[in-house]
Write a structure and sequence with these properties.
Rho termination factor-like N-terminal domain-containing protein, mainly alpha, single chain, 56 residues, Rho-like_N
C-alpha cells in the first residue's frame, strides 16, 4: 500500500466538529468509526482514521 500524504483540512463532509479529531486518541477514533457502522478501520493509523471519518 502506498502511503498518502494529506494536508489537514478545516472540516470534512461531516461538519466542522471533525476538525477536533486530531485531539482524539486512536481508541476514541475507532469507537467513532464503529458507531458510524464503518468497516476496515482496525489496522488504520490515526491519520488514516481521521481521513476515513471525515470523508466516508
Amino acid at each position: 500500500m502506498t502511503p498518502v500524504t494529506r494536508t489537514r483540512p478545516v472540516a470534512g463532509r461531516h461538519g466542522a466538529d471533525s476538525s477536533s479529531y486530531y485531539n482524539w486518541t486512536v481508541r476514541q477514533l475507532k469507537r467513532r468509526a464503529k458507531e458510524r457502522g464503518m468497516t476496515g478501520y482496525s489496522a488504520l493509523s490515526k491519520e488514516d482514521l481521521i481521513f476515513k471519518l471525515r470523508y466516508s
